[in-house]
Amino acid sequence: MNDRKASGPAERPGMATPMPVDAGKLKALAHPLRVRMYGLLSEEGPATASQLGARIDESSGTTSYHLRQLADHGFIEEDPDRGTRRDRYWRVRPGGFNLDARRFRDDPAATAALRSVRGELYDGYARPLLRWFEHGLEWDESWIDGSVSTMSRFVGTAQEMQELRDEVMAVIDRHVAATRERPEPPDVARITAQFHIFPGHRVDAPEGSADG
Length: 212
Prior knowledge:
- By secondary structure, the protein is mainly α.
- The protein has one domain (19-181): Arc Repressor Mutant, subunit A, CATH 1.10.10.10.
- It has helices spanning 23-29, 32-44, 49-56, 60-72, 108-135, 141-145, 158-181; strands spanning 19-20, 76-78, 90-92, 97-98.
- Helix 2 packs across helix 4.
- The longest helix is centred in the middle third of the chain and has 28 residues, at 108-135.
- The two termini are 37 Å apart.
- Mean pLDDT is 84; it is low at 1-10 and 206-212.
């Protein structure tokens, strides 16, 4: 899940524009099954209601209903290159969505929906990483050599954090775009790239420095 869930600039050159999420779209997304299905479509690629139902142990009627809700609010769309009228494939909307929590500060109902969605999104971020930690050694050496799990901590300003975010996302976007422009090689997998960057707590400024 290209997929923008809840971070990054609203627009980036060469990439599809993330869909802004308003209160109505947020409340439509705020259902555990919908976020879970969105995550599966992002992580594993297009699927039918029956295929998703088998993955999450739900009936195809249930998954069909929630897929229609996701589609009606713009989160997913039909894949025109797959399926039939009776067996439709769904995929995430190119560009994903942009979830700016600041829009919902003064809306208690939306704030509750935001907490629900964020909790499910967190699970969606964590599951692939946990699976890699548990089963990574089952992959070939080339895949293991190309992987890394890393975290850096440093003292910086909000501006410095934003600059790092933009540089990292630009590198990811460049590599994603390159994979779309080349013929598909024989040995491929759906690759997950995750970067977490956030302020943990405020740091007292050194004596003599000025707030800025």
